[in-house]
Amino acid sequence: MDRDFIEIFNEMKDDIYRLVYSYMKNTYDTDDIIQNVFIKLYNQFHLLNDDEHIKRWLIRVSINECKSHFLSSWRKKIIPLDNKFDDEFMTQETLYGDNDILQAVFTLPKKYRIVVHLYYYEDYKIAEIAEVLKIKETTIQTQLQRARGKLKNILKEDFDYE
After folding, report:
1. Are 2 and 31 contacting, i.e. CB atoms less than 8 angstroms apart?
2. Is the same domain home to 2 and 77?
3. CA-to-CA dists, residue 70 to 1, 33, 35, 48, 142, angstroms
4. Is residue 30 part of a domain?
5. Which residue, of 13, 16, 31, 37, has the greatest Cβ tally within 10 A?
6. Which of 32-41, 69-78, 104-113 is predicted most confidently?
C-alpha cells in the first residue's frame, strides 16, 4: 500500500497543489491544506478503487478543505503577514509560468477560477465538474461563460495598455 500511495502522491501532488493554491492564494495555507488532504488520502487509500476515482476524491477533499479553512473561526482571528515573507520559490509565476492567460485566470473570483482550472487544465468534462463540485451542469456552463467574459476583459485591458 505504501508504494502505491507514494506513486499516487508523486503523480498528483503538483496538480492538487495548483488547485489549492489557486483557491488560497498563499503558500502557507496551501501547504497546510495539502498536508491535510494527503493525510486523509493515506487513511482512506484502501477504500478507493482506481486512479480516476482517487483523482476526483482528491479534488473534492481539497476543495472541501479550502472551504473549511475559510469558514474556520481561527482564520477570522489571524492577521496576515506582509507579502515580503512569502516563499520565493512558490510564487504565482513559479506555479503558472510567464503565461498571461494563466495569470489572468489567477485573478478571477474563486468560483470561476476553480471551474476554469478543472475544465481547461485538468481536462474534466462539465458533467464531471458538476459531480465533483456538487452543483448543476448548467451552473458550471454559466460560470465558464462568465469566466471567459471576465478573462477576455482582463486580457484586453492588459494588451491595450502595453
Report:
1. no
2. yes
3. 33, 11, 16, 27, 24
4. yes
5. 37
6. 32-41
Q: What is the pLDDT of residues 72-90, one digit of tens each?
A: 766 655 555 544 444 444 4
Q: Are 29 and 74 in contact (CB under 8 A)?
A: no
User: The pTM is what?
Assistant: 0.61
Q: The cell 485538468 sits on which residue? A: 122
Q: Are 109 and 25 in contact (CB under 8 A)?
A: no
Which residues make Cβ contacts (< 8 Å) with residue 77, sequence separation at least 6?
A: none
Q: What does the alpha-carbon distance between residue 61 and residue 132 come to, in Å, rounded to a whole number? A: 10
DSSP state of 97: T
Parent domain of 36: 1-81
Distance CA 53, CA 17 (A): 18
